[in-house]
Structures are given as structure tokens and as C-alpha cells.
Write a structure and sequence with these properties.
- It contains 22 helices and 15 strands.
- It has 524 residues and is of the alpha/beta class.
- It has 3 domains: 106 residues, ATPase, nucleotide binding domain (Nucleotidyltransferase, domain 5); 167 residues, Nucleotidyltransferase, domain 5; 204 residues, Hypothetical protein af1432, CATH 1.10.3210.10.
- The strands form 3 sheets. Strands 8-7-6-9-11-10 form a 6-stranded mixed sheet, sandwiched between helices. The protein has a 5-stranded mixed sheet with strand order 3-2-1-4-5, with helices on both faces. A 4-stranded mixed sheet has the order 12-13-14-15, covered by helices on one side.
- α16 crosses α20 and α17 runs antiparallel to α18.
- The longest helix has 21 residues.
- The chain is elongated and about 100 Å long.
Amino acid sequence: MRVGAIDVGTNSIHLLVADVAIDGTWKVVEAARKQVELGANGLAKNVITPSAFQRGLEAMAEFQEAARSMGAEDIHCAATSAVREAENGEDWVRAVREETGIRVRTITGREEGRLIYLGVRSDLDFSLGRVMLMDLGGGSTEFILCDSEKPTHIESLPLGHIRLADAFHRSDPMSKVEYDELKAHIKTVLKPLTSSVKGRDFRTLVGTSGTMRCLAMMATLARGDQTPDHAHGLVMTSEELDTLVKRLRATTFEGLLAIPGMDPRRQRTITAGAILVRQVMRAFDHPRMITSERSLRDGLIVDWIIRNRPEIDLIASIPDPRARSIERLMERYGADREHAHHVETLCLQLFDGLAPVHRMGFGEREMLRFAALVHDIGHHISGKNHNKHGQYLIRNTRMHGFTLPEVDVLASIVRYHRGGKPKSAHPEFAALSSADRHRVRVLAGIIRLADALDRSHDGVVDSLTVELGDGIVRVRATAASEAHLERWAANRRTDLLAGALRQEVRITIDPAGEAADERRVPIG
């Protein structure tokens, strides 16, 4: 199954598309990033500015289209500090939902830490003991003390690189006063964490996020190493970071671009970010930081797997995405499974027996089978007009594996399995192609008859056969009892099928092998 994850951060919005295997493992198909800067000029005021609001919407629309074009069946999305702190954050979430259909979950700092842990855990070495994760974002930094089983301490602090740069890096280059104020501020904000967690409580310090990897890349190149192919597992020491901080402080914004390893997208905030990382390493007295390329968006994939374990098991047992969609409908809306499967059996016997007349193929047979299984789900809303309710539920459910025209056909078959005949005055039916309207008449007519032959929901009609000739369809059913209710219902439900096939339809039900009366049904 293909899944998309979108991490809405203060600085950037990230997309990750991954294939999830039935054993729960996954691999990345595509990763993308857009530097939207939702928090630009608004963090201090707790607002998403109009321009950032629009940039965010455009990025979400682009990522939604990209994920769907790559076949993502679901998109798991979370928003962090810029959205959760903004007074108009929920307005942005609502706008995203209206424009793209994506549900954005605004998460707490603690939940953010949990997701980061899930994303990074598979790459961590716990052989030496516990690990401290530091995820440096634009609006906040998450600290996650963890072992191989769970996070043991999560702290989210307002120490994002954008927030710090906005507040303390106004001069170009940074002045000594700004530097001193920034260090003092960081120390104050870190105090609750450093009071409860000591450097001796963990053996490894791991940094995630683009800013962290950019700093590690600059440190790597500064020591003379070759440019690595990726930024995972890079190491920077406290001494290297000391040297790098001095250089960044003394360099203008324009001059930063000349430093090897510098990412131009982080030009405005890299100095504040470097000072924060250095202060954290000092506070915990740890000599080195190791980088990880995994982050919250990876955690969203893992979280999706955890949340959808039953769905993954369903994929393992039902490989066909269309069959899974039908199974979900039956489960969600409490279908009477015994009746649904019995009607399915009778429908397929009718379809196969009528093949020389309707001349339809495997695709229509499958559509009939699917419709038979969900024909009664409208009872979830109300027994009255449940056929129309069923049509509504199908049309308003994401049906993986079905094209939109197929969904319309399926919904229409369910709509007309009882009640009035299809009419051109019905908008949904009129919108179908001529060929699909014919399919709906035939297949809905078959379900009407099969449903009537299990009118009591007791399965008294065991099986049936079809005999054709002289413009007459003879349906002979065998029953375990007199089947009075089924006989009555069946003889009232043949008109749609007769009209669609332009054949006369006669029903015979033989209780315990005895022939029952026939009723002639005129062509509808």
C-alpha cells in the first residue's frame, strides 16, 4: 500500500511517499520539500501572515496532487509549532481541508516528540545506552530521551532557529550584545530540561532536521573530508562547532554563502541555530553530535502503520484494492454478512445463467458481486429508503481501486436494487453513459431478484438455475422449505430485469424438490 506523509513545519513543509509492505516494513518512493516559512514575521505575534497563509495552501495543494498522482491511498499530515501557536492556525487547517481534502492534525510538542522518536528509532544504536534526540525546528526544538522501547522524557521548548533569529539576530553580522543575549536566553529556556535530565543520563546525542545536517556538513568539509553522498550519520565535535560558531558570528549574511556546505535556504537562521546546538552540547557536556536524516515525516509513516495495522492485515488477506474497499464498507456500516454473501451467490448464479442474453463479461460480473455485498449498507442510516442511503454512502466514500465512473455505476446499482425503476429524471442515472445505464438496469435487476429470493434472510433458497428459450427466462430455484415469502417477493421483483433483457421472466421455486406454481411476468 502506498502512503503519503506531510510534515507542516514552521520553516518548511515536507512530503514523504512510501510503500508499506504487508509485514509493516516500508521504503521511500519520493521525498520533497518546500520552504514555505509559515512562521515568517508572525511567530512573535502568534499569527500566520496572509502571504505565508497562501504559500502554505499552495504547497499543500501541490503535495496533495503529487501524492495522489503517485498512487498514495492515504495521506497522514501533522502541523507543528507555527500552526499550533497561531491564532489563525485553525483557519489555515480548515482552508487546507476545503481546498485539498487533507485533514491536518495540529499536534502538541509532546506528540511531535513521540513522532520524531518513531521516525528515528530504527536508525539509532542503543547498544551503549539511552539516546537523546534533538530535533531543531523553526519554531521549537524537541528533546527526546529514549531507549529502544519508548521515549522516557519528551520536552518541547520554544527554541526554533527562526524564532531565535527573529529575536536575536538583527545586526549583520551578529553583534556581541546579540550573541550574549541569545546565549543567556537559551540557557534560561533550557533550565527546566537540564534540571531534570543530565548528560550522564544518555550516551549518545543525535540531531535531526535540515539545520542540524547543514551544520554537520559544514563541519565535515571544514576538517578537510570529502563531500559525503548524504547527510546521515555525520559527526561534528564540540571543538568543531566552537570554530564554526565563531566564523558564522563574524560573517555577513551574504558572506555565509561562501562557506563550504552552507545551504542557501538557511542563510538567515543558521547562525542562531549553530549557537543553540553549541549551547546544548555544553549544557549536557557531550563532545559530539551525530546526525540522522530521519525525522517527523518518517514518524508519520510509522504512526500510520501502527494506526492501520488492521488495514495492513486486510491487505495481506485481500490483495485486490477494490475488494478491500467493499470489505471496508461492509465493516464500517454493519452489513448483514450472511445475507449479503447469500445474495452474492444467487446473483452470480443468475448472471452466469443469463450470459447468452446479457452478453456481459468479467468486469460486469465483478461489479455485480461488489454491489450484492453492499446492497443493504444504507440500513446504517435508516431502513426506509436504505437503497438511496446506500447510494449516498458509496458516492461519498473514497473507494480505492475504483475509477469515479465505476463508483457511480456501483452506487446506482445499489440505488435501484429496490424501489422505483431507473429514470432519466434521476440526475445521477442520467449522468451515466448509455452503456453504463444499460449495465445498471441489468445488474440492478439481477440483484432485485436475488435479494427477493432471500427475502426472509434465512437462506431458504439453496440454489438456482436458468433456462433460456423462446424469449423466456426460466429461473428455477430449490428451497429447503415452502419459501412462501421468497415466492411472493420474487414474483414482485422481476420487472426491471425483464425490461432490461427484453425477455419474459418466470420464477419457479421447488420446496423439497416439488414443483411450485409459475407466474408469467410480462416484458417491462
